[in-house]
Design a protein that fits this description.
Blueprint: H1 12-16, H2 25-34, H3 38-43, H4 61-77
Helix pairs in contact: 2-4
């Protein structure tokens, strides 16, 4: 599966919701759970409010792939 990584210098939550403006925290968390990203996100001190750094430099490649899956799931769910 090919992933286009969207990583702007913002929080994990805002990166997941990037393609679905107005997404609620519950929708963001649900998308992360479906992408198997919720558990590693909860391990960060700031959870979903953790900054990812420029181009996602604060995350491993696998972590970026999983939270980007959440981004795409949220986009598809919201028909964007």
């Amino acid at each position: 599966m090919l992933f286009f990584s969207v990583a702007v210098n913002d929080t994990i939550a805002n990166n997941i919701a990037y393609g679905a403006p107005g997404a609620t925290r519950a929708e963001i968390v649900e998308a992360a759970k479906q992408a198997n990203a919720h558990d590693f996100i909860r391990e960060f001190v700031e959870n979903y409010d953790t900054p990812v750094g420029e181009r996602g430099t604060q995350l491993s490649g696998g972590q970026k792939q999983r939270y980007c899956s959440g981004f795409w799931l949220l986009c598809v769910r919201n028909d964007r």
